[in-house]
Write a structure and sequence with these properties.
The structure is a single chain. This protein is about 70% helix and about 0% strand. It is mainly α. Strands 1-2 form a two-stranded antiparallel ribbon. Helix 2 packs antiparallel against helix 7, helix 3 packs across helix 4 and helix 7 runs parallel beside helix 10.
Length: about 240
Amino acid sequence: MTTLADLGPLAQLRAGRLPRRLTQLLVGLWLYGVSLGLMVRGNDGVAPWDVLHLGIVGHTGLDLGTVLVIMSFVVLLFWIPLREKPGIGTIANALLIGPSTDLTLAVVHPPHHQIARVLLMLAGVGLCALATALYIGAQFGRGPRDGLMTGLVRRTGLSIRLIRTALEISVVVVGLLLGGPIGVGTVVFALAIGPLTQVLLPTWIVALDAPTQDQVAEEAESDAYPAVSVCGAQA
């Protein structure tokens, strides 16, 4: 079974191979934003969380990227009672995906033909899986929404599948009530993103340097969580 180290920010920096890992993190997060923009331009359904984000866009007039950033930090507030620890990748996730999405929307125009829209949607789903594998494989921590999921799993004892399904149904329902779009792409994303990420992730996990005994003791004192199993993820 593939496992990922669940380290605090200092341990993430001490784990070695920083140039490779930082580059992979930033490329993965930027491509994640591109993938969301492609799905929006496909106009054939968006990721479950983006149903909520676009619903908020419709009521506030803010750019989608701005809403993504704001909602990332709102979600991080829920980490506090769950005692989830943000990593370097968590903050980078919250700050980078929004601008990347807005830039993609600025340069990619909505296609006129249905086939082109479907291709954009499928490209968005596939690229999102690759982007997820890249940023998670860099081993700099989970994104805000994934951390909410794992925190709830840890606190409730319920399965990842149940918590993730409940979260995504909840955000879709709220998003629909706010006027957010839903379509075939929403279903495709929900069904495909986990399996695709599961297939791609082992290729992109960067092996970390073994920690010294002092680093192990320091992490134990800071209440670092143990490694977690990989089962597919979202930002």
